[in-house]
Structures are given as C-alpha cells and as structure tokens.
Amino acid sequence: MRKLAIVVIATLLGVFSYAEYGHTHGVVGKRFFPTTLVVDDPFVSDELDLLKVFKGSTTQDGTQTSVGFEFSKRLTPDFELLVGWEYLFQQAINGPSASGSGNPDVGFKYVLFRSPEHETILATGFDAEIGGIGPKRVAERISTFSPGFLFGKGLGDLPDLLKYLRPFSINGQLQVSIPSHRQTVTTSIDEDGNIQQEVDHHPTTIPFGFAIMYSIPYLQSFVRDVGLTAPLANLFPVVEFNWEATVSGPNPRLTTAFVNPGLIWVGRYVELGLEAQVPMNKVSGKNAGINGLIHIFIDDLLPNIFTWTPWGVIGPMPQPK
Amino acid sequence: MGSHRTHATTEMRRLKKSVLSLFLALLFSVATFQTLAQAHAFPVRSDPRVGWTVAVSPPKVTIWFDGELEPVFSTITVYNAAKQQVDKGNSRVNGPDTNVLEVDLTPLAPGTYHVYWKALAKDTHVTQGDFTFAVEKK
C-alpha cells in the first residue's frame, strides 16, 4: 500500500510539474478551449477520453455510476467520427443493484464556422446510442438519435477596460434526443398464470447546457503575467450548467437540471478534470454526484499514427532530418 | 435476490479495483510519454512581462516558448500606440536555445507598446498571439 502511495504521488508530481499544455485541440484564434466534462465542445480532433468516471445524484430511480471512454478521429480538418462506451452500475432505491456494459454511442461532428479574431466557433453534430447491445438489466433496448448544435466563444475581443474578463469563455450545446420507439411493452406471466404487461415510455428530450470557464494560461500569455507557475498556470476553473427537458410522453414538463463546478488542468498531452454534479431541482436528485476525466491528446502524443486519414495527413507533417 | 445483490456488489468492487489500477497505470504512462512527442509552441513567459510596466526602455523583447521553434517562420514585431514599428526587424530564434524568440528594440519613449508574435513549432503547428507592455513615464 505504501509503495502504491509513492507511485501515485510521484506520478501526480510528474504530471503536474510539466508546465506545457497541448493545443492541437480546441484552438480558435489565440483561444484554447479544453474539453468540458458535461457539455460537449464544438471542436473536431483526434482525442481520447481515456477514462470517464461518473457517479450520479441519487434520484427517485436510484443511483447510477459509470466508467467509460470516448475516441474521436478526424477524417478532414472539419469532420470527425466518434465512438464511446460505458460500463454501468445501477443501484435502485430499496432494490437490487445491477451492472454491465451500456450500449455503444457513435456519431460525428462537423465545424460550420470559425472566426479566429472573435474566438468563435459553431459546429453541428449527431450522436446515436445503438440500443439492444448492452445487457437488458442496465442498457436500453431502443436506440436514441441526437442531432444538435455546439458553439464556443472566447471573450478576447472585450475592450481594454474589461481586459481581466478576456480569459473567460463559454461553450454550449443544444440537442434533440429522439427515441426509435415511443414505448416498449414487456409481457410476462405471473405465478397465478395471469398475463402481466409493463409499459416503458421513451420520451423525446431536449438536452442543453453551457460551460463558463476562466483560462489562467490566457490571462498570463495575453492579458497580464500574474506570476503563476505550474501546476496553477495550467488551470481552468469551470462551471457547467446542463438541463434535459422532456417534451413528450407522460411527463412532458419534467426537466432535470444540474450545476457542475470544478477544475480542469491541461498538460501538453493530457487533460485532467474533476467536477461536482449538484442537482438544481427535486427531479434531478437529492445529493451531489461527481464527474472525472482523463483526456489524451493522441495526435500530439503519437502524431505519426493519429494524424493519418484515408485522404492524407492532417496537421503536422514530418520534418526532413 | 440477496445472492444477486451480493454478486453484483462483489463484481462492482472488483471492477472498481481494476479501474483504479488502470487509472494509475495510465497516469504513469502519460508521465513517461510526455517527453517523447512534440506539440504546438505556446509562450511560457516573456521579458518584458505580459501587461507590465518597465522603468526604462528595454533593449529587446524575449519570449520563452514551451517547445522548439523553426527559426525561419517565427517572428516578433513591436508597435507603439501610433502603430509605428519600433523593433529593429531582426527577430530571431536565440541560437542554441530554440525555445526562445527575441527581437531588438529601438530606444522606446514612455508609452504603451504592442507585441505581436508568430511561432512555427518543429512539428509545423503555427501559433500566434499578442500582448502589451508599457514604459514608465518619467
């Protein structure tokens, strides 16, 4: 155990003492947007959410915990494909617990507009959860399709009077999640030989949210060097807000809402994030959850592999010796 | 039902241990790999410091980057408040230290100056930015 603690401390020191931070990803103009944990960011990139850990608030249905990953790969400078997967742990209120792999998520993202001078970007995306692949005890039997829009805006064009607000940025998303079936009916025969039918409703929902963050690297590189050094110089304090409104089915006004304050730290090849998930209404739960992320900039780490596409190399080219 | 819950709890504990081990292994791998690849070059610090006021005219502007630069395409230019160029047009990567970009300045009068930099990293990623500094009024 002591050896383990030494390894952990040494590794963390190694990671945090490395002052440089990676920028292939999420750059528009002078602005670097790190990947946010709850709200999807509008950038396309070759990246890997190596480990996403989530422990949700306790709701009337129970508690859900998940660990998973997401991999995204650019095919052009403005278009990426992505695939993700999670392992789920569910604990019902006063009921049994269950665990197993969830359904896979696949999708794409396409950048519609970039304005480097205004640090602005707009993208569209599409996600699909492919139903029926994970075990029935934890995974949905139906598929869900979620088209949406994503945006990012840095405040670097504020006037000199407000220069200390320039490190702020906001990014957000708006989606519509459409189920492949509005309801599913499970039929069973009880001990007395009666036929039982259980109806599950699958409503259309509108997930939306935004993240506000303050970039310490932007402050020090473009506004004023306040003398911070690693690891503080690489921090992005962040607050994310997210909602999911139900627009069909038996509870059309049901809206879950969370505020997620936390910290993001960005090194040259890795990003680490940790946020609390605080419910903003009764429907969303009664205690705080937690979100964690280890995110790898794989095209910086292994550029000869991950900048390749069937249509040629994206970004950096090998330099002649 | 009880047996199902016990089994699931045991499985959850086992998986949590595996996830912890994986997390530690990944952190270790990341820390080890950090020196093996290249990325964009972004500024770490500068002299004069970003946003600061200096007492006397500095002889040059120096920017330290977090990665190696290609000398030919990496530049610094400096302008006064009237948008007149006040550097000597000799921006250069500083000899053996290819992480450092600098340019000589003409003698500067008191006022605010705007520094524009462009950096081409060894991996050909381009970054650019700007900042101001001021020379104190006597």
Straight-line N-to-C gap of chain A: 47 Å
Count all strands of chain A and give the number: 20
Helical content of chain B stands at 10-25%
Task: Count structural domains of chain A.
Answer: 1
CATH architectural designation of the largest domain in chain B: Sandwich
Please give the radius of gyration of chain B in angstroms: 25 Å
- Most strands sheet of chain B: 4 strands, antiparallel
Order of helices and strands of chain B: HEEEEEEEE
Specify which chain pair forms the largest interface.
A-B, 48 and 45 residues
DSSP summary: helix tally of chain A: 4
Radius of gyration computed on alpha carbons of chain A: 22 Å
Describe the SSE topology.
The complex is a heterodimer of chains A (about 325) and B (about 140).
Chain A: H1 2-16, E1 27-28, E2 31-32, E3 47-55, E4 63-76, E5 79-91, E6 97-101, E7 105-115, E8 120-129, E9 144-154, E10 168-175, E11 178-179, E12 183-189, E13 195-201, E14 205-214, H2 216-223, E15 235-246, E16 255-266, E17 270-279, E18 289-296, H3 298-301, H4 303-306, E19 308-309, E20 312-313
Antiparallel strand pairs in A: 1-2, 3-4, 3-18, 4-5, 5-6, 5-7, 7-8, 8-9, 9-10, 9-11, 10-14, 12-13, 14-15, 15-16, 16-17, 17-18, 19-20
Chain B: H1 2-33, E1 43-47, E2 53-54, E3 60-65, E4 75-79, E5 92-93, E6 100-104, E7 111-120, E8 126-135
Parallel strand pairs in B: 2-8
Antiparallel strand pairs in B: 1-3, 3-6, 4-7, 5-6, 7-8
Write a structural description:
- The complex is a heterodimer of chains A (321) and B (138).
- By secondary structure, chain A is mainly β.
- Chain A has four helices and 20 strands.
- Chain A has one domain.
- Chain A has helices at 2-16, 216-223, 298-301, 303-306, and strands spanning 27-28, 31-32, 47-55, 63-76, 79-91, 97-101, 105-115, 120-129, 144-154, 168-175, 178-179, 183-189, 195-201, 205-214, 235-246, 255-266, 270-279, 289-296, 308-309, 312-313.
- A twelve-stranded antiparallel β-barrel of chain A has the order 3-4-5-7-8-9-10-14-15-16-17-18. A two-stranded antiparallel ribbon of chain A has the order 1-2. Chain A has a two-stranded antiparallel sheet with strand order 12-13.
- The longest helix of chain A has 15 residues, at 2-16.
- Chain B has two domains: 2-36; 43-135, Sandwich (Immunoglobulin-like).
- Chain B starts with a helix and ends with a strand.
- At the A-B interface, helix 1, strand 3, strand 6 and helix 2 of A face helix 1, strand 1 and strand 8 of B.
